[in-house]
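Lecture 7 notes: from sequence to structure.

We start with a single chain of 456 residues. Read the sequence below before looking at the structure.
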Amino acid sequence: MSKLIELIKRAYRFVRFDVWRITESELTKSKRVSYRLVKTIVLAVRGFMNDELNQKASALTYSLLFAIVPIIAIVLAIAKGFGFESAVEEWLNRSLIGNTDLVPIVMGFVERYLETARGGYFLGIGIIVLLWSVTSFFYQVESSFNSIWQVRKSRSIIRQFTSYLSIVLIIPVLIVVSNGFSIFFNAKLPELQAIKIISPLVTFTIKLVPFVIMWIVFTLLYWVIPNVKVRFWSAAISGLVSGTAFQLFQMLYIWGQVYLTRYNVVYGSFAAVPLLLLWLQISGVIILLGAEISYAAQNVRNFDYEVDTKNISRRYKDYIALYITYLVVKRFENGKKPLTAERISLKNHLPIRLVTQILHELVEEKILIEVYTDGSVDKTYQPAIDINKLTVDVLFSRIDAHGAEQFLNAPTPEMVKFWHKMLGIKTYVKPDSVNLLIKDLLPEEKTDEQDVSKVQ
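Now the structure, written as tokens:
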């Protein structure tokens, strides 16, 4: 029992502290993947709890409940234009709703909705209401995604409309491809029965197609909707996980309805309503959890040394600030290409969050400036003042004086005397080192380039 407790404690320490104290540049390729996986899972679970995804999924359920008929109406209208109405209805019947009693009711709503939207004087108003319902739902999704990605501003109205419409247009195409693929292979399956090796492969392929469709749909959601640059591989990873979870939940949902006979006896056909709400709620959780995975996968390096960085001492932070300034100054002195925050982090095994925080402060203190070189979109850093005047004393004086001071309206005379006394005795630099230039801190440059191009 004691060994089990000790093992649990070690696992907790590893997940809570140790795994974050090793940067990816210090690991081999094989370990890098496993460590990144552990970090991504931890961040996703932490985000699930901290971001209250259950409550956000409830809000998403409310929005989707109002938007589901307009969304299906748009998809069906597009499918009708290409003559694939039956394919969409079949897909709804076996995949989306998973309840044979509810599908005819929903399809009746959709037909009446389309008739209202294109009829008489209400043609324009009907279309506007339809598009507004769909846009409102996707806006709710974008707001939830932006919150997870810590983005405060949504995209413009025009960009919202074009992005959401693109997704809605792609869905019926994927449905038609999925159904057409399944129909084709089901028709050819009897001919392939004679070939015993191919037949299982075809059967497996038919079963895999719905998963592939879900992977594509979820990848598009995580790649397009957040108002931030999402790397495709981050969206693809979360799309793979969420799409698989969603498809498995669909199978479980449909299978579970067969065994809910008592529930149906009590509620009758009305049983479809609470089951639909349950389906929407869990689907919302899966969608938002995928967004958390996407964010964690893309930003996992930002959380290296997270606990230590939050509790960093003033002295150690000053040391890192001095060292980063030294790196920037020496590269400028030697005429080398300026470094980005990511390169500084990778070269020196420093946590990227701490590096970006200190660089931001050094820019505000007018020690460094941000520059863009060779048309690059990544910021690099150069000295903001003459390196022959940039001493250690200048750096620490600016760091020490950065921020608000003497903001009290009526300090006592004793406080004023104490302030001047403190200014006279407080120093970070020894008197014989006041004029020591940062570029001369070390006798020779010890910041040779390391091959970190393979570190992702």
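Confidence is low (pLDDT under 50) at residues 445-456. Keep this in mind for problem set 3.
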